[in-house]
UniProtKB/TrEMBL annotation, chain A:
One of its GO terms (molecular function) is DNA binding. Residues 219-427 form the DOG1 domain. It comes from Forsythia ovata. PROSITE patterns: DOG1. Its main location: nucleus. Residues 1-11, 90-99 have a biased composition (Basic and acidic residues). The lineage of its organism: Eukaryota, Viridiplantae, Streptophyta, Embryophyta, Tracheophyta. This is BZIP transcription factor family protein. Residues 1-32, 86-174 are annotated as: Disordered. Keywords: Activator, Coiled coil, DNA-binding, Nucleus, Transcription, Transcription regulation. Signal peptide: none annotated. GO terms for cellular component: nucleus.
Automatic annotation (TrEMBL), chain B:
Residues 34-97 form the Glutaredoxin domain. It is found in: Cytoplasm. Belongs to the glutaredoxin family. CC-type subfamily. It holds the Pfam family Glutaredoxin. GO terms for cellular component: cytoplasm. This is Glutaredoxin-C8. InterPro entries: GlrX-like_pln_2 (IPR011905), Glutaredoxin (IPR002109), Glutaredoxin_subgr (IPR014025), Thioredoxin-like_sf (IPR036249). Its main location: cytoplasm. The keyword Transcription does not apply. Keywords: Cytoplasm, Redox-active center.
């Protein structure tokens, strides 16, 4: 490309030579790739006026100063970051711009995928020479002319050019491209949300436990220890599994089972420390996965649920053992009921205290409320105590082999519950127009598969 | 030796407060099959009361905050238990069982019900 002055060397660097429609002194209808991808949502009127005004008073590079006056409008440009990035034709982005200009569709895709990386370029300190001009150019209805004018403003005085009209088909193309861009951004956003949810459910986000909230140091510490405990749990479980399969002696199995109980005792120790530093973190279940949180009782699993889970698995019980298990279940239900009622009374009295905070007496009432909140700690501790006692009692009632099987069942159950959480988080959503039909399709596909399977089962 | 009448229901010999309160507690504990020392504002006490009533036990409850000798009895109970919280404390058959965690543990490991039966607090 011939050099046309200072201004257009930027474009010419970025554009491959076959994109001659961006030459400064020609006015082709904007069938250029990326430039055409402006939507119709912009009100370019004001900008056009500004450009026109600038053009009138322009003779030299001093106009760059006045161009900055239009920059505040750049804020609106940041709504469509991919657009701004198109026009950041600095030498450092020259390679990317080449890709952009290749094809309308592919440009969209590359833009959508690079949006995350290039978005940060929205508000960087631009090299003053061409950036504002480029941004303005991007915003104008007639991009070709806009860029043309911008480059002219920078370079040297040239006669103003006639603006090319945009055909209807161009406008239709533009709006289609715009809609496509929106959809791809939406998909990307949903993917990011899913990734975030998955990571959170796996407890990897220590600083981001609550969206927009702060996680206390006690809670962060506990989360870290808990994730380590979970890794240990997997190790113990696989040890138990291999021990069961390899038919070890009772003595060796007992060692493994006792180690597993000690492993749980460790967890209850950790929880005791966490209850002192941050009881809300425990009682709201922010340390667990969402599915576990659904069944949360006083900061952890409900011990009687454990027995329900195990009763089905324990088929070879002696009468003495059966009596033991059923009385354990009954005592657990009574104990849980008592603790739940105590906690409810605590909540009621807290509500009354906070409700009765008068203007004169508020500090006094808040102090009372604070002292009542310390009671929460006690309940979480008692609930954990109940859990710990349950595991120990199970160990006492059952034989070593039965206990090993039970603990394996318990471990696998919670593993599956946690996996359910992450599966749920990463399930395909039916929020998008684009995806809606496909998900409907999968549902009908599934029905077809099931019905065909039913047919075959008759044979 | 002179006896001091309380607004309560018992005659007490005057002795140094601590031993006095401890003696009082132990004496009260021996009077009934199941004795619970509690406070009306304490929610954990509410829990333990519910636990026993859920089992069909008619426990005798002494609310410390309704007693003039609250402070001393509290101190005595703390010393007895070795814990920072005075209430709730449970005595069965005159013998100390302990605070909430001990009661819960004994219920889970199946020793509470026999104890209650022995004291005559429940019948099968």
């Amino acid at each position: 490309m011939a050099s046309h002055g200072v201004g257009d060397h930027i474009l010419s660097d970025s554009m491959p030579s076959h994109h001659h429609h961006i030459q400064p002194h020609t006015l082709h209808p904007p069938n250029t790739s990326f430039i055409n991808q402006e939507g119709s949502a912009f009100d370019f009127g004001e900008l056009e006026e500004a450009i026109a005004l600038q053009r009138v008073g322009i003779n030299n590079d001093e106009t760059k100063q006045t161009l900055y006056a239009v920059r505040p409008r750049a804020a609106t440009l940041e709504m469509f970051p991919s657009w701004s990035t198109k026009f950041h034709h600095t030498p450092r982005e020259s390679s990317k711009s080449e890709e952009e200009s290749a094809d309308s569709e592919s440009a969209l895709n590359t833009l959508a995928s690079r949006r995350d990386t290039t978005r940060h370029r929205l508000q960087p300190p631009h090299p003053p020479k061409t950036q504002p001009q480029m941004e303005m150019a991007s915003a104008s209805n007639n991009p070709t002319t806009g860029i043309t004018q911008a480059k002219q403003l920078d370079a040297k005085p040239t006669p103003p050019k006639r603006r090319g009209a945009r055909s209807n088909s161009d406008k239709v193309l533009d709006s289609k491209a715009y809609v496509q861009q929106l959809e791809s951004s939406r998909i990307r956003l949903a993917q990011l949300e899913q990734d975030l949810q998955r990571a959170r459910s796996q407890g990897f986000l220590i600083g981001g436990g609550v969206v927009g909230g702060n996680i206390t140091s006690g809670a962060a510490l506990f989360d870290m220890e808990y994730s380590r405990w979970l890794d240990d749990d997997h190790r113990h479980m696989s040890e138990l599994r291999t021990a069961m399969q390899s038919h070890l002696s009772d003595g060796e199995l007992r060692i493994i089972v006792d180690k597993y109980i000690a492993h749980y005792d460790e967890l209850f120790c950790l929880k005791e420390v966490a209850a002192v530093s941050d009881v809300f973190h425990l009682i709201t279940g922010m340390w667990t996965t969402p599915a576990e949180r659904c069944f949360l009782w006083m900061g952890g699993f409900r011990p009687s649920d454990l027995i329900k889970l195990l009763i089905a698995q324990l088929d070879t019980l002696t009468e003495h053992q059966a009596v033991g298990i059923y009385s354990l279940q009954q005592s657990l239900q009574q104990a849980e009921e008592a603790l739940s009622q105590g906690l409810e009374q605590l909540q009621q009295s807290l509500i009354t205290t906070i409700a009765n905070c008068s203007i004169n007496d508020s500090m006094h009432h808040m102090a009372i409320a604070l002292s009542k909140l310390t009671g929460l700690e006690g309940f979480v501790r008692q609930a954990d105590n109940l859990r710990q006692q349950t595991l120990h009692q199970l160990r006492r009632i059952l034989t070593v082999r039965q206990a090993a099987k039970c603990f394996l069942v318990i471990g696998e159950y919670y593993d599956r519950l946690r996996a359910l959480s992450s599966l749920w988080a990463s399930r395909p959503r039916e929020n998008f127009i684009a995806d809606h039909d496909s998900s409907c399709q999968t549902t009908t596909d599934l029905q077809m598969v099931l019905s065909s399977r039913n047919q075959f089962s008759n044979f | 030796m002179h006896y001091q009448t309380e607004s309560w229901n018992s005659y007490l010999p005057t002795k140094p407060p601590t031993t006095d309160s401890l003696q009082l507690i132990l004496r009260l504990a021996a009077e009934n099959a199941v004795v619970i020392f509690s406070k009306s504002t304490c929610c954990m006490c509410h829990s333990i009361k519910r636990l026993f009533s859920g089992m069909g036990v008619n426990a005798t409850v002494y609310e410390l905050d309704e007693d003039p000798r609250e402070k001393e009895m509290e101190k005595a109970l703390i010393r007895l238990l070795g814990s920072s919280s005075a209430v709730p404390v449970v005595f069965i058959g005159g013998k100390l069982v302990g605070a909430m965690d001990r009661v819960m543990a004994s219920h889970i490991n199946g020793t509470l019900v026999p104890l209650l039966k022995e004291a005559g607090a429940i019948w099968l």
